[in-house]
Design a protein that fits this description.
alpha+beta, Alpha-Beta Plaits, 34% helix
Length: 92
């Protein structure tokens, strides 16, 4: 399994607040499946970071595509990158 970091900003849309519960439920489901390591908004609320565990980049992209925020285009400037942790450790 590999780690992937998703970073994103937010589009100016009321769907962000209207569908936040769906987004959080999706993240909780990923956590229950063992695919989510950590997730949360940036302190200034300009965007967020999601750390995923997946077999490969294709698998990680599928997880991102399942997110209601992705499906509804609530997020923008999404960047998904494989992450090689060299100091410290994260358990998925």
């Amino acid at each position: 399994m590999a780690l992937f970091v998703l970073t994103y900003g937010y589009n100016d849309t009321p769907l962000r607040s209207e569908r936040r519960d769906d987004h959080v439920a999706h993240l909780e489901q990923l956590r229950a499946e063992g695919a989510l390591v950590a997730a949360g908004p940036l302190a200034d609320r300009s965007g967020g970071i999601v750390i995923l565990e997946a077999e490969d980049e294709t698998g990680a992209k599928v997880l991102v595509e399942r997110d209601p925020f992705t499906q509804l285009d609530v997020t923008k400037d999404r960047k998904l990158s494989e992450w090689n942790v060299t100091v410290g450790s994260l358990q998925g």
